[in-house]
């Protein structure tokens, strides 16, 4: 399979020029034709700057524009766009919260809505309308007049953006499944790019399946790296430009350290907090603290490519439509081996590096790793960690037996200190909630377990909701915030496998109270699978056997289960509207979703 992606070392490509630190390439059609090897040839430049711009040949752009037919664009469906509520932590430091709108737009409706979300007019319009010969340039039915977005105008709007970022709530049609390219585009078709992710058996939206991004004025993408530290490519089909920023790869550690210092609480909750894509810091602030910021204006008909460890961010100047996907070159294996993923987001991406390696190189991963260790270890032992979804067994080397010297035990020091075992937050479930806002809820209050022989250091604690699921074994004392009888939990209850987190022997699970139903859950896990709780009786019914709630009364602050995109979620009501509600989603409480009241299925 390695031969499918041969390296043409003869392909030598240099940037046509640099735009504020960003390499810009203007390849010939011959250079442009081979996506994989073109990117191999320019890889060293992107690894330095974090991002590059590629301006494709005009004949290729003309072919792509033929895809913009009314029937093709009519299939673009922008579902559940996000409204970005952006708060100012300090001058130049912002944090956004994404509120999903339970609505759907066509690209034509999106274009009409853009008229109500226009950027501010020019302060001084010195240029007069030009009087020319012939006809004015015709604007396609799907586009807007982009001629006003000169470099000077964009600079003016960029200044306005950072001065007024928190005074509006931009809307962004992000992460929309689909593509605008048709199958006739065989070169640089974002939906079908030849790369290592083709070897994956599963399809992951946005990773190896293209996403569409419908922009409006101020719609932003915060500082982040790609999932699994992959490469990414973004093609701006039409519309207003995007503003891009990037951090040189040589400063990615300094940038991360500064962001940790600025968002200390979020870092304590999740070391991969920048993958949440909610933290924004202005270029002026970063440069004031010694971080260089590369920047460029991304215009229609151009590509932007991002690189591993290349932190990037940006925003949209007005209505536009872009298409994006991740990809990987064989250089990525070194990054993939030591990348980490966010553990507090349920759908964070994980890739089986071992499986991809074996498919690409045609050799066993363990053997290849052993050979690399003997040659200086390309996958260095001082890496930041390994991917959680793949556990590569340690290679057992055969060594010559040596005669053991006599060793005096009294003079022998212990080689390594045993790692401290950090106790779980709750004895009955694997979930950690005390670093979230849900720790203040009575549902997730931690009760001290009354266990014989326990000391303050070894005291065991239990979430109140977890304790409530074992009424025959546990007795709760609300006055003293204690729970009695933890040792009464049976071995069988501990062995049950949770239907949500899929773990057994991690605390204990209760079973659905419906006769003969064997589905089991941890107390805090069942909330996101539609389990109906009755705390008075201690009974709980799975979503297949729960009783329908005919009359539900809602108030701000209550906890509810609801349906969204055919999945069950749990969260807290934060606002009530006419027929709609806004809910802060459990467990991270980082996203707010707007849904119809009819989507609420249970009150907890």
What is the domain tally? 3
- CA radius of gyration is 28 Å
Helix content: 10-25%
Number of helices: 14
Can you describe this structure?
With 604 residues, this protein is of the alpha+beta class. It has three domains: 313 residues, Cupin (Jelly Rolls, Sandwich), CATH 2.60.120.650; 87 residues, no CATH class; 46 residues. Helices cover 18% and strands 24% of the residues. The chain contains 14 helices and 30 strands. The strands form six sheets. The protein has a 16-stranded mixed beta sheet that branches. A four-stranded antiparallel beta sheet has the order 10-16-12-14, with helices on one face. The protein has a four-stranded mixed beta sheet with strand order 19-18-21-20. A hairpin with a 5-residue loop joins strand 28 and strand 29. The longest helix is centred in the N-terminal third of the chain and has 15 residues. The radius of gyration is 28 Å and the shape is globular. The N terminus is likely disordered.
């Amino acid at each position: 399979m390695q031969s499918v992606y041969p390296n043409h070392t003869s392909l030598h490509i240099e940037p046509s020029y640099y735009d504020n630190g960003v390499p810009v390439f203007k390849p010939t059609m011959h250079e442009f034709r081979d996506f994989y090897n073109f990117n191999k040839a320019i890889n060293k430049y992107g690894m330095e700057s974090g991002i590059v711009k590629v301006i494709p040949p005009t004949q290729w752009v003309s072919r792509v524009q033929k895809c913009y037919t009314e029937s093709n664009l009519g299939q673009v469906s922008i579902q559940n766009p996000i409204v970005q509520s952006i708060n100012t932590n300090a001058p130049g430091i912002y944090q956004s919260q994404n509120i999903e709108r339970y609505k759907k737009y066509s690209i034509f409706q999106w274009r009409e809505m853009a008229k109500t979300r226009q950027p501010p007019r020019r302060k001084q319009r010195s240029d007069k309308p030009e009087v020319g010969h012939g006809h004015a340039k015709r604007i396609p039915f799907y586009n807007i007049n982009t001629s006003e977005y000169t470099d000077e105008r964009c600079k003016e709007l960029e200044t306005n953006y950072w001065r007024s970022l928190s005074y509006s709530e931009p809307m962004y049609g992000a992460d929309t499944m689909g593509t605008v390219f048709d199958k006739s585009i065989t070169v640089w078709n974002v939906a079908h790019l030849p790369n290592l992710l083709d070897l994956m058996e599963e399809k992951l939206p946005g990773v190896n399946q293209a996403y569409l991004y419908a922009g409006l004025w101020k719609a932003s993408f915060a500082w982040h790296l790609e999932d699994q530290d992959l490469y990414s490519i973004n093609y701006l089909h039409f519309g207003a430009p995007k503003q891009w920023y990037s951090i040189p790869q040589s400063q990615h550690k300094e940038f991360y350290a500064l962001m940790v210092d600025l968002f200390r609480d979020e870092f304590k909750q999740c070391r991969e907090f920048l993958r949440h894509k909610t933290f924004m810091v202005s270029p002026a602030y970063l440069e004031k603290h010694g971080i260089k910021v590369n920047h460029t204006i991304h215009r229609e008909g151009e590509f932007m490519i991002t690189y591993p460890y290349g932190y990037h961010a940006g925003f949209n100047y007005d209505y536009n439509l872009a298409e994006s996907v991740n990809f990987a070159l064989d250089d990525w294996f070194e990054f993939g081996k030591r990348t980490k993923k966010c553990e507090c987001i349920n759908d964070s991406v994980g890739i089986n590096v071992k499986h991809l390696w074996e498919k690409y190189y045609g050799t066993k991963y363990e053997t290849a790793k052993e050979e690399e260790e003997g040659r200086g270890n390309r996958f260095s032992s001082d890496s930041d960690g390994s991917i959680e979804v793949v556990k590569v067994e340690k290679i057992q080397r055969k060594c010559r037996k040596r005669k053991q010297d006599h060793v005096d035990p009294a003079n022998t020091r212990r080689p390594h200190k045993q790692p401290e075992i950090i106790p779980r937050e709750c004895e009955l479930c694997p979930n950690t909630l005390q670093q979230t806002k849900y720790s203040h809820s009575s549902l997730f209050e931690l009760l001290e377990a009354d266990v014989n022989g326990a000391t303050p250091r070894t005291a065991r604690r239990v979430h109140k909701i977890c304790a409530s699921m074992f009424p025959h074994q546990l007795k709760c004392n609300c006055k003293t915030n204690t729970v009695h009888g933890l040792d009464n939990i049976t071995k069988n209850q501990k062995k049950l496998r949770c239907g949500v987190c899929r773990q057994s022997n991690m605390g204990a699970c209760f079973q659905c109270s419906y006769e003969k139903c064997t589905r089991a859950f941890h107390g805090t896990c069942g909330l996101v699978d539609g389990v109906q709780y009755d705390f008075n009786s201690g009974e709980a019914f799975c979503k297949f056997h729960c009783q329908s709630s005919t009359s539900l009364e809602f108030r701000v602050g209550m906890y509810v289960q609801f349906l969204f995109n055919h999945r069950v979620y749990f969260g807290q009501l934060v606002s009530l509207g006419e027929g709609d509600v806004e809910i802060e989603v459990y467990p991270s409480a980082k996203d707010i979703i707007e849904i119809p009241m009819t989507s609420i299925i249970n009150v907890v």
